[in-house]
Amino acid sequence: MEEINSEEENEEDSEEDSDEDSDEDSEEEKKNKPPKKVFLPGNYKLKQNEELECDENAYVMYHQISTVAPCLSFDVVRDNLGDTRTEFPHCMCFVAGTQAEHSRMNYIMVMQMQNLHKLNNKPAKESDESESEESDEDEEREKKELPILKTSLLTHDGCVNRIRMAGDMQRPLAASWSELGMVNICDLNELLEVVRSSENHENDSENIIEAKPLFIFDNHGVEGFALDWSPVEEGYLLSGDCNKNIRLWKPKGFSSWKVEERPFAAHKASVEDLQWSPNERSVFASCSVDRSIRIWDIRVEPSKACMLSVENAHSKDVNVISWNRNEPFIVSGGDDGIIKVWDLREFKHDRAVASFKHHLAPITSVEWHPTEQSVFAASGSDDQLSIWDLSVERDAEAEEVESDETSKLPPQLLFIHQGQRDIKELHWHPQIPEIGRAHV
Predict the structure, then answer these.
(1) What is the 3-state secondary structure (H, E, C) of 255-285?
(2) How far is CA 32 from CA 6, 23, 28, 29, 300, in A?
């Protein structure tokens, strides 16, 4: 959550005032300082002397890291530390792909963040207390709670358009779409060994690994963005390109795959995202620049494999989709800035069961919560990350009492995160369900 602070910056006087005068000025500033209020995008334009301040009380944990180059895509690397973890400090691992200015300077990055503690949100202190120095115990505690980041890099040909981890923890495979029109599959074992070692690796240049991918497929002919591993059928992979074609990959031995020659090609434009069914081995969904969402069955020959479709799911490009693990729902986001929820049981009626117009720009990512079946998150090019709960209903009595701008928001909108620019992708952590992460 962000708050508006309209306090103007004043230049420091060259001479120091007395303590008494300073106290009087401070009290006067507090009296004249306008009250803070919640900032809602689209409802208010910041003035020249105003800035956004993060309200840390809205977060249980919040950490930021910088990468060697911008990243368009990332994914969570599962570990053996246990599922549904709740105790702090947390440890988590991610893989991301860079978008460097020069094609030959791109990497797949494995990052391990550890010693991640809660935010120390203390109640506001009185003025005399706030000016006092922190105790030695507090300083020692802060040192112990400093987060640790370990990084290892794998060279990659071309910018990484998208990267996805296979679900097998015993064999950490990453599939990556390259801007050069290739899909690579890499074994990340060596990179994970580096970040999980006891040594602290602060210099990334010492952790660059040069190794060839296990498998490369370059017969798409053009670049693409859509990519998804099957959560049910081990080793099965889907890749979709900007020339409307979707390819099915089947494992062939330990380090090879058979990519079907005949693509699934019912779309009329670029395939933007792919999602395997979380329950059915042979079913997957796709979305496209042609504004459609399609459901496929790989048991049927590609020319007849499209079983269901909504031709005009959005008024513009459909950018992203996510398939609910527990309910027959798909959530989609488009260039029209609209988020829609589709019930597969009503798919043939071409009508979404829910539609939300909150974001002010194209939707860049959507994902259902791993355990809460009615909760999902979305991000947009308007620099917002939003969290929604479909189970929340409008409270008419509460609306009569509330009169501020927040009362106009959809009741299903639980939370808005701001302060990051160009958010491209978000993910919940599957083993720490209360943790979400966004990448820019």
Answers:
(1) CCEEECCCCECCCCCCEEEEEECCCCCCEEE
(2) 11, 14, 6, 5, 71
Q: What local confidence, expressed as pLDDT, does residue 14 receive?
A: 44
pLDDT of residue 396: 64
Strand order in the sheet with 375-380: 363-368, 375-380, 385-389, 413-417
The CB density around residue 240, as the number of other CB atoms within 10 Å, is 28
The pLDDT value recorded for residue 394 is 77
264: which DSSP letter?
A: B
Nearest 5 degrees, angle CA 272-CA 424-CA 321? 40
CA-based nearest residue to 170, from 239, 77, 87, 274: 77
Report residues of the chain scoring pLDDT below 70. Answer: 1-36, 121-137, 169, 198-206, 396-405, 436-440
Whose tokens are 């479909």? That residue is 390
- Which has the closest alpha carbon to 347: 330, 369, 334? 330
- Per the listing, tokens 């959507």 go with 366
**DSSP code, position 17:** P
Summarize pLDDT for 142-164 with one digit per residue, the tens: 778 899 999 999 999 999 999 99
What number of other Cβ atoms are within 10 A of residue 439's Cβ? 23
Report which residue type is found at 320.
V
Residue 316 three-state SS: coil
Specify whether the CB–CB gap between 209 and 155 falls below 8 A.
Answer: yes
Q: How far is residue 87's CA from residue 215's CA, in Å, rounded to a whole number?
A: 39
Helix, strand, or coil here: 333? strand
pLDDT at 134: 58
Going by C-alpha positions, the residue among 109, 110, 108, 107 that lies closest to residue 79 is 110
